[in-house]
Amino acid sequence: MASEIDFRAQAIMREQQELYGYWRACAQSRPLPSRFDIDPIAIPHLLSGLSLLDCGDDLESLRYRLAGTRVGAIYGAEITGRAVFDIGFQHKRDYWRTVYRSVIEDQMPMQGTVRGPAAGREHLLLIWLRLPLSGLSGKVERILGYDAAIPATFAHGAPQAHIVGERIEKRRARL
Question: How far apart are CA 55 and CA 141, in angstroms?
Fold first, then answer.
């Protein structure tokens, strides 16, 4: 399936690729794995960046069931048990509503990057992954998330690092 290949190719971090591969393996031949198929013990090296969200009747009832220690550090607070839209998205609220709507209603895995994942966190570039998990009804009842962050200044420095790499290659070609 071309879209799955594209999705895998767009994963920025090795951990995203690992979690997506684990999620797909748990699904076996089904479109989505069940929430009962996921065993965090199978992916211990990813635990600090994982979150598990409970889906309710609407987006406003979306709640963090569990959040790894790194996830809390990214958002600047303990978020386990909190409603997703109560953690200070403010100007990113529409962005996150679109993401979660696609994951829940369209049953689509989603990934991306966003600067300033929450209010007061503009110094961070969030690299995120959200994977739907079905319940007994076949609807998405939970979302498996993975979050990592780097200083936003690193994102601005990346093109300079690329230019340095080109200069090194040009020097090698001359030798």
Answer: 5
DSSP state of 86: G
Tens of pLDDT, residue by residue over 44-60, are 999 999 999 999 889 98
Please give the angle made by the CA atoms of 154, 97 and 18, to the nearest 5 degrees.
55
List pLDDT tens digits, range 3-29: 777 777 777 888 999 999 999 999 999
Give the distance between the most distant pair of CA atoms in the chain. Answer: 65
- Planar angle of CA 15, 113, 52, nearest 5 degrees: 55
Token output for 98: 């679109």
C-alpha 164/C-alpha 79 separation (Å) is: 40
Contact 80/87 with Cβ under 8 angstroms?
no
Instruction: Please give the Cα distance from 120 to 112 (Å, whole number).
Output: 20
pTM for this predicted structure: 0.84
